[in-house]
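Weekly modeling sync, notes
Attendees: S.R. (lead), two postdocs, one rotation student

Agenda item 3: backlog of single-chain predictions. S.R. asked that every request posted to the team notebook include the full sequence so nobody has to chase files. The rotation student volunteered to paste the first one in as an example of the format we agreed on. Action items at the bottom.

Example entry:
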Amino acid sequence: MIKEKKIIPNNVRQFREELLMSKAELARKAGLSALTIDRVESGLQCRMDTMRKILLALGLKLTDKDRVFPES
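Predicted structure, as returned to the notebook:
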């Protein structure tokens, strides 16, 4: 049985690009790998902790979660 990967659209790339930040820079600030950032921007599911790290690295508050991750 093949596990389907659910695509969940988000606005991480939009927020990152507005800050003129590279994936590598966001990954460094968030304490994550660039591959993780790439996967999240592609819409793959991620853990709540990963969302929290990305929000804070983008300079946002946790209350901004729905702006960045609207369908999670």
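Discussion: group reviewed the output briefly. The two ends are 25 Å apart (CA to CA).
Action items: rotation student to repeat for the remaining queue; S.R. to check formatting next week.
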